[in-house]
Automatic annotation (TrEMBL):
Listed GO MF terms: kinase activity
UniProt organism field: Bacillus salipaludis
Family: Belongs to the carbohydrate kinase PfkB family.
Protein name, per record: Fructoselysine 6-kinase
Highest rank taxon of the organism: Bacteria
SUPFAM superfamilies xrefs: Ribokinase-like
Keywords: Kinase, Transferase
Length: 280
């Protein structure tokens, strides 16, 4: 399978140790997919500074296709991060850097390129909501990470263009998560996925709720845990659908959740989203 991340990239600047790591929801998806053995690409906007140079060099070394990325003079996106007992705490950033002034507008050429992939993944930090309908209309499967920055208006407007919606739900009680995922499904997403931190994850397919406990490890850093969980989950799910490896949808979702939990646990043992830190 070939997959692509479309949207945000940043460096995560760990202030307490003066080290920055490549990251961003869409970019992480591309890297994690590559780690899981898929052919992957990334389409995003890069600046002209040292951070952008480090990210692009890292992705080229990992053999992630960057052929349709945009490059502009200016500061690349960054987030400032602190670490408390292994948990990430975001304390600032520059709002996406050059991406603010040069947002992604998908051209016909982009769409023809993206149509060669099994799925395109984006996020709330990619400022891509107005472009999602183009992907849907082109027949591309779309997944979207709302993180914790969503409200009902955003969900209703966006989910009709999204096949697989991911939401951070650690702040909600279980019954509230169920209601949220029901709503997301009713707005148009085939699968609604909620991550709940140490309480694991939940998936709703329009009929049944599926729960998955996390695979507990002593974390080095939880940055990227949600992205890695989702990447492993959705790739296993899509591969199973394609190859018809499971007898039922329920079996496939359950098996995919296990794969997601396993991969997320591995990610928590690495500094940054996937390593490759340099000093700043």
């Amino acid at each position: 399978m070939k997959v692509i991340g479309v949207g945000d990239n940043v460096v995560d600047k760990y202030l307490y140790k003066r080290t920055m790591y490549p990251g961003g929801n869409a970019l992480n998806f591309s890297v994690y997919a590559k780690q899981l053995g898929m052919e992957s690409a990334y389409l995003g906007v890069f600046g002209s500074d040292r951070a952008a140079e480090h990210i692009t060099k890292t992705l080229k070394n990992l053999e992630v296709d960057l052929s349709h990325c945009r490059y502009h003079d200016g500061e690349n996106g960054y987030a400032q991060v602190d670490l408390v007992d292994g948990d990430r705490v975001f304390i600032g950033g520059n709002g996406g850097g050059v991406q603010k002034d040069h947002p992604i507008v998908l051209t016909d050429e982009d769409l023809e390129y993206i149509k060669t992939f099994e799925i395109a993944h984006s996020s709330i930090y990619s400022e891509m909501e107005a472009e999602l309908h183009k992907l849907k209309e082109a027949g591309v499967k779309v997944s979207f990470d709302f993180s914790a920055d969503y409200n009902d208006q955003i969900l209703e407007k966006t989910c009709k263009h999204v096949d697989f919606s991911l939401l951070s739900c650690g702040q909600w009680k279980d019954e509230e998560v169920e209601e949220l995922l029901k709503r997301v499904h009713s707005y148009g997403s085939n699968l609604a996925i909620g991550t709940m931190g140490s309480r694991g994850s939940m998936v709703y397919d329009g009929q049944t709720f599926y729960r998955q406990e996390p695979h507990f490890v002593q974390p080095v850093d939880t940055l990227g845990a949600g992205d890695s969980f989702f990447t492993a989950f959705i790739l296993h799910y899509l591969k199973g659908k394609k190859e018809k490896t499971m007898k039922t949808e329920a079996e496939l979702i359950k098996a995919s959740l296990v794969e997601g939990a396993k991969f997320a646990a591995k990610t928590c043992l690495v500094d940054g989203a996937f390593g490759y830190g340099i000093s700043f």
